[in-house]
Amino acid sequence: AVVAMNHLTTRIEKDDSNNMGGTKLVPALGESWAHSITSRLMIDHYRHFHNTGTSSSATRGMEEVRTCTLVKSPHKPNGTALFMITDKGI
């Protein structure tokens, strides 16, 4: 899989008439990249507490569960996948 990101950055614009400028959010990699990417993924994570083992030997643990949500795509329906990153991989 390839993930291409085009973060937003702030462009400061100067108005010549009163030297007062404004700000505008623009794609950091430029307008051409803004139209090249057709799908949008939202990646998030949360901590999940769990009990492992039997009641006599139960231990509490914490896992970081991550989600990857397809928010926008011209070809696929929206959906969410859960995954974890461990020392063995994804």
- Nearest-integer average pLDDT: 78
User: Oligomer, anyone?
Assistant: single chain
Structural class: mainly beta
Span between termini: 13 Å
* Rounded Rg: 22 Å
Largest sheet: 3 strands, antiparallel
Number of DSSP helical runs: 1
Shape: elongated
Order of helices and strands: EEHEEE
Number of strands: 5
Order of strands side by side in the largest beta sheet? 3-4-5
Model regions low in confidence, pLDDT < 50 over at least 5 residues: none
How much strand?
over 45%
The helix content is under 10%
How is this fold's topology laid out?
Layout: E1 8-14, E2 21-27, H1 31-36, E3 40-52, E4 59-72, E5 79-83
Antiparallel strand pairs: 1-2, 3-4, 4-5
Tags for this model:
single chain, 90 residues, mainly beta, three-stranded antiparallel β-sheet, two-stranded antiparallel sheet, 1 helix, 51% strand, elongated
Can you offer a commentary on this structure?
This protein has 90 residues and is mostly beta strands. It is built from 1 helix and 5 strands; from the N terminus they run E-E-H-E-E-E. The protein has one helix spanning 31-36, and strands at 8-14, 21-27, 40-52, 59-72, 79-83. The longest helix has 6 residues, at 31-36. The relative contact order is 0.17. The mean pLDDT is 78.
